[in-house]
C-alpha cells in the first residue's frame, strides 16, 4: 500500500503531531519487519508492507525511546538505516529524536553566499581537549574575532569506536554520539549564527565504512559491484532499485539543512560518485539542498581530485550547480615553495613564482595537460569560473596527515608569513585548518579506532600509502608512522589554545591579513580578471590587484634572498599617472616576529627583502 501518513522524511522514526511515533523503512529483501522497543515502553510491533519494498506503522512510543528492527524471523536485531541518533554507536539501538523540540533562536538568519567568506576546517573531536560540541562552541567568539566566517565540520555520520576522522561513517542520519547529542549540534550551529558565522558539513556519499554498516540486511541494492571506489564498493545511483537509494541520499542532504540549519555541505571525493542517470546524483543533491534552504543562501563545496569544472558549472549549462571546489593545485605548488620537497603527488610542481601567479589568476594549474604522476591528463579549463569558486589552502586534514608536520614547522618563519599572505589575499576563497591561525604545534595524524583485525589492516594500508613518499618508505620512517588505532595518536592531535599566546606573532599575522582582506575594497572584490602578475626573478614575483580609477594594490613576494631590481622593466610595477606606491602592510612587521623590512622603490631601483611579502597601495601625490 502507498504510504499516506504525513512525514517529513520518507524513512526513519518520526514523532507525529499527536505524539505517536511512526516508523518507515525500505527493506525489499525482507518479507516481514517488526519494531522492537526497548526501555521505556518495551514491546514488539509489526510494520505493514507497502509497495516498493517499504514497511511502515505506528508503535506506542515517545521521543527518547530506543528501538531496533527485527527482520523476518531472525533473532538478531538491527538499527534503523535512517536512525537520527545511535547513543551506543552503530552496533547498538537507535533512538527516536524529535527535532521540533529544539528552540532555535536564529529566525533572522538568511545564510551566506560564497563571495567574501573565509573557511575554517574543524574536527570536533580534536578541536578542543574535551572534544565536544559544547566545548567547541565556547571557542566560536575567538574564531569570529580572528576573521573566520564559515566553519567546515568534518563528517558526523556515526561510526564505531572511540575516535576517528568520520569518513568511515555508517549511520548517515545520526550525528556521532562521541561529541554530544543531536541537540548539542543544533546549539553549536545556533550559537555560530548568533555571531554571524555559517556552518558547513562535510558529507560522504561515495562509500560507507567497513564496520557497522547494516544496510545490506535490508537491501542488497544499496551498494553496487559495477563500480569501485578507493575505499570499496560504491553506492548504487543508477542500477536496479537505485530509486530508493537516490532518495536516501538526497533526503540526507536535505536533512542536514532543514533539521540542523547547516548552511551547506562539502561533498567528499566526488570523483568516486558514479552515476549514468539522466540527472546525475550530484545535480540532484545540489537541487535538493537549495530547495531545503527555503530561501536561505547555502554554499555547496566539492572535493574533486581530477579537477572537473562541471562541478561548479550551473545546471542549465550542463554542470552540477555547486558553488566551489577545492584547489589542490594551489596547495601543491605552495607546499613545494615552502619546503622544496617534490615527492609523490608533489612531483609535478616546482613552487615557482610563475606557478604561484598562475594559481592565483587561473585557479587550477592543470587544465588538461599531461600529469606525469598519474600518467594521464588532469584538469579542465577554468576560464568561466569566478575566483571565489576556488577553495585555496595551505593545510587541510588530508595534507597534514600525509606530510606529517605543519608547514610552519618545516619552513622558515619568513617564507611561512609570505605564503600566508598570498593565501589570505588571493581572490580565491581561503580555508584554514584548525589551529593554523596560531601555528599549532599539534599534529593531525590519521586516527581510526577499529576492532583489532580491521585495525591491523588499516595500519598496514596506511604505511603502504605513505610509502609513495620516498622519504617515508625507509624502514626507519615506516616505524615512525603513528598507529591509527592507538589512543595516543588521537589524543596528541588535540589543540592547545595556550599557543595563541605562545605564537602571538603568527596569530596577529592571520588576524591582520583577514582584517585587510575584509576591509580593503580591492582585495574584497574577488573580481574575475581583477589581478595580474609578473615574475621578477627565480624566487620573487608581483601581483597587481586592479581597483577603481587606478586605486590599485601590489602584493610583492620574495621567497629568496634580498633582491635589488635595477632596472625594473615590468609594467605592473608602475603606478598610474599622478600616483605613488605606499606601504600598507609588511610580513616583516615586528609584531609578527619580523625586522621591520618592507619592499620599496628607491632611486637605485626596487628593493625586496628576502623571504617577505609587502602590500602597497597606489596613492595620490600630495
Overview of this structure, please?
The chain is α/β, with parallel strands linked by helices. The protein folds into 3 domains: 12-98, Immunoglobulin-like (Sandwich); 119-514, Alpha-Beta Barrel (TIM Barrel), CATH 3.20.20.80; 530-620, Golgi alpha-mannosidase II (Immunoglobulin-like, Sandwich), CATH 2.60.40. 26% of the residues lie in helices and 22% in strands. The chain has 17 helices and 31 strands. The strands form 8 sheets. The chain has an 8-stranded parallel barrel with strand order 10-11-14-17-18-19-22-23, surrounded by 4 helices. Strands 3, 4, 7, 8 and 9 form a 5-stranded antiparallel β-sheet that branches. Strand 24 and strand 25 form a beta hairpin. Helix 6 (242-260) runs parallel beside helix 7 (281-293). The longest helix is centred in the middle third of the chain and has 19 residues, at 242-260. The protein is elongated and about 90 Å long. The mean pLDDT is 95.
Q: Which SSEs are present, and which pair or pack?
A:
Layout: E1 12-15, E2 21-26, E3 33-37, E4 43-46, E5 48-49, E6 54-59, E7 66-71, E8 77-78, E9 94-95, E10 119-122, H1 124-127, H2 133-138, H3 140-146, E11 150-153, E12 157-158, E13 171-175, H4 182-195, E14 198-203, H5 215-218, E15 223-229, E16 232-235, H6 242-260, E17 264-267, H7 281-293, E18 299-302, E19 324-326, H8 328-339, H9 353-362, E20 370-371, E21 376-377, E22 390-393, H10 397-403, H11 413-425, E23 429-433, H12 452-466, H13 475-480, H14 487-491, H15 499-502, H16 504-519, H17 521-525, E24 531-537, E25 540-545, E26 553-558, E27 563-565, E28 579-586, E29 600-602, E30 605-608, E31 612-620
Parallel strand pairs: 10-11, 10-23, 11-14, 14-17, 17-18, 18-19, 19-22, 22-23
Antiparallel strand pairs: 1-2, 2-6, 3-4, 3-7, 5-6, 7-8, 7-9, 12-13, 15-16, 20-21, 24-25, 25-26, 26-31, 27-30, 28-31, 29-30
Amino acid at each position: 500500500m502507498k504510504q499516506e501518513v504525513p512525514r517529513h522524511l520518507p524513512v526513519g522514526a518520526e514523532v507525529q503531531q499527536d505524539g505517536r511515533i511512526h516508523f518507515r523503512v525500505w527493506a525489499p529483501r525482507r518479507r516481514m519487519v517488526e519494531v522492537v522497543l526497548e526501555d521505556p515502553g518495551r514491546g514488539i510491533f509489526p510494520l505493514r508492507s507497502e509497495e516498493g519494498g517499504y514497511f511502515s506503522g505506528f508503535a506506542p512510543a515517545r521521543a527518547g525511546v530506543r528501538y531496533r528492527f527485527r527482520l523476518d524471523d531472525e533473532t538478531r536485531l538491527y538499527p534503523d538505516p535512517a536512525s537520527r541518533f545511535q547513543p551506543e554507536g552503530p552496533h547498538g539501538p537507535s533512538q527516536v529524536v524529535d527535532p521540533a523540540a529544539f528552540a532555535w533562536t536564529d529566525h533572522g538568519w538568511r545564510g551566506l553566499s560564497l563571495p567574501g567568506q573565509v573557511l575554517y576546517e574543524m574536527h570536533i573531536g580534536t578541536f578542543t581537549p574535551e572534544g565536544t560540541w559544547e566545548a567547541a562552541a565556547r571557542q566560536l567568539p575567538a574564531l569570529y574575532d580572528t576573521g573566520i566566517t564559515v566553519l567546515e565540520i568534518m563528517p558526523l555520520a556515526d561510526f564505531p569506536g572511540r575516535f576517528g576522522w568520520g569518513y568511515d561513517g555508517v549511520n548517515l542520519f545520526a550525528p556521532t554520539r562521541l561529541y554530544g547529542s543531536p541537540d548539542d549540534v543544533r546549539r553549536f550551529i545556533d550559537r555560530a549564527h548568533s555571531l554571524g558565522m555559517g556552518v558547513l558539513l562535510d558529507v560522504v556519499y561515495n562509500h560507507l565504512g567497513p564496520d557497522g554498516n547494516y544496510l545490506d540486511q535490508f537491501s542488497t541494492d544499496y551498494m553496487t559491484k559495477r563500480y569501485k571506489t578507493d575505499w570499496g564498493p560504491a553506492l548504487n545511483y543508477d542500477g536496479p532499485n537505485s530509486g530508493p537509494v537516490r532518495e536516501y541520499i538526497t533526503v540526507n542532504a536535505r536533512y542536514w539543512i532543514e533539521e540542523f540549519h547547516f548552511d551547506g555541505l562539502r561533498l567528499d571525493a566526488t570523483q568516486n560518485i558514479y552515476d549514468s542517470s539522466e540527472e546525475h546524483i550530484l545535480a540532484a543533491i545540489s537541487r535538493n539542498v537549495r530547495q531545503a534552504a527555503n530561501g536561505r543562501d547555502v554554499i555547496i563545496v566539492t572535493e574533486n581530485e581530477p579537477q572537473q569544472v562541471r562541478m561548479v558549472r550551473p545546471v542549465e549549462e550542463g554542470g552540477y550547480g555547486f558553488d566551489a571546489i577545492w584547489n589542490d593545485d594551489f596547495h601543491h605548488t605552495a607546499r613545494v615553495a615552502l619546503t622544496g620537497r617534490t615527492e609523490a603527488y608533489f612531483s609535478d610542481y616546482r613552487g615557482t613564482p610563475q606557478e604561484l601567479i598562475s594559481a592565483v589568476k587561473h585557479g587550477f594549474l592543470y587544465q588538461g595537460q599531461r600529469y606525469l604522476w598519474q600518467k594521464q591528463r588532469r584538469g579542465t579549463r577554468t576560464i568561466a569560473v569566478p575566483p571565489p569558486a576556488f577553495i585555496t589552502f595551505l593545510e587541510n586534514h588530508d595534507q597534514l596527515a600525509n606530510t606529517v608536520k605543519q608547514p610552519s614547522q618545516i619552513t622558515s618563519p619568513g617564507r611561512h608569513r609570505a605564503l600566508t599572505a598570498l593565501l589570505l589575499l588571493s581572490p580565491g576563497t581561503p580555508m584554514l585548518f584548525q589551529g593554523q591561525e596560531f601555528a599549532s604545534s599539534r599534529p593531525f595524524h590519521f586516527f581510526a579506532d577499529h576492532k583489532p583485525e580491521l585495525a591491523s589492516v588499516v595500519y598496514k594500508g596506511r604505511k603502504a600509502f605513505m610509502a609513495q613518499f620516498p622519504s617515508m618508505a625507509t624502514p626507519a620512517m615506516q616505524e615512525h608512522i603513528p598507529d591509527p588505532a592507538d589512543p595516543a595518536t588521537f589524543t596528541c592531535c588535540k589543540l592547545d589554545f595556550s599557543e595563541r599566546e605562545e605564537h602571538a606573532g603568527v596569530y596577529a599575522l592571520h588576524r591582520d591579513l583577514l582584517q585587510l582582506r575584509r576591509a580593503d575594497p580591492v582585495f574584497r572584490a574577488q573580481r574575475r580578471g581583477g589581478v595580474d602578475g609578473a615574475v621578477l626573478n627565480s624566487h620573487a614575483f608581483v601581483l597587481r590587484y586592479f581597483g577603481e580609477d587606478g586605486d590599485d594594490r601590489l602584493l610583492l613576494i620574495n621567497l629568496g634572498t634580498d633582491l635589488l631590481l635595477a632596472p625594473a622593466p615590468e609594467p605592473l610595477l608602475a603606478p598610474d599617472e599622478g600616483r605613488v606606491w605606499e606601504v600598507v602592510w609588511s610580513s616583516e612587521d615586528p609584531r609578527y616576529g619580523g625586522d621591520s623590512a618592507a619592499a620599496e622603490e628607491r632611486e637605485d631601483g626596487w628593493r625586496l627583502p628576502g623571504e617577505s611579502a609587502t602590500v602597497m597601495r597606489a596613492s595620490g601625490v600630495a
